Amino acid sequence: MIATILMLYRNRQLEIIYKKIEINEIDESLKSIQFIWIPNIGDFQRKLSEIETICNHNTIILLSGYSKKKSKKYNDENIKFLSSIAPVYFIWSDIDYSGNYRDLNALLLDCKVAILENSNASFETENGTKFSIIGLDDIKTNRDNLNFALDGCYDDHLNILVSHSEVLDSKTKNFESIQVYLFESSQLNGNRNQKTIYLELHNKIGIRKQNTVSIINFEVLK
To answer: Model pTM?
Structure first.
């Protein structure tokens, strides 16, 4: 299994990065699964109506941190819009915990967003292939616990791990069931498991990062 970046598409509203995960599977319906990764939704400066045109009935939205910097209040407008068009899952960053994260937690729940903090969510394709999204709580503030996050997951699932920062050492035994790992930013000198696909979703900084989303699809190899 390998992962490759397909292409970069720009327009005046959003910078959309298309990425593909190449995976050895027999289930062609995995191709219809679409992940939309949105970083720092609190600093997002563009309207998100364009994302609605990208979504399909198998879209899953992943929010990588809120990271509110300028506004004193959390804004629920973008989050409510996203949760109206697709299932939305949130993973914490260290910046989120530097603010009033309890207010953010309440806002997310009110907006029907599932928070993946050392927990997981399971899905099934049209052809019956089961896959799980496993979310880690913030790594930089030592809140992550993969053992808890894996609770209830099955080895025969396609297990996709997500976190804001990358785990520094993923050669540990509990990573053996992880086929795909998606994260916002990588750790330097990381100790990686060679059987896992690693995708760093965003390495940009500043204003450009605030207008960027990633669209991730599977490419099924037979």
So the answer is: 0.88
